[in-house]
Known about the structure:
- 23% of the residues are buried.
- This protein has a three-stranded parallel beta sheet, with helices on one face.
- By secondary structure, it is α/β, with parallel strands linked by helices.
- The chain contains four helices and three strands.
- The longest helix is centred in the last third of the chain and has 13 residues.
Amino acid sequence: MCCTDPLSLTEEKMDLLAGAGMVGIQMGVESGSSAIQTLFNRKNMTNERMMRAMNTINKFRDRVMPYYDFIVDTPYETNADKMETLKFISKSQSPIV
């Protein structure tokens, strides 16, 4: 098991780790809302970048179980922010556990 982030994950790394026996990977997504991403100082973590990382992880679903972290219901989150996150999750090709 290992932890990663969307900015450092590559298909090559996933292939090497899965080949070495990794069976699970955890990645912090935190929020699908750009306003909340900025609040959490994750300005470089766009939804497009996170989705690319999730799609890379999905290529290894036969060997590696993904786990994604979301921070929900913060005092700063509006209903619109929550909806952005839910829409982001619904576009994901990966089951969210």
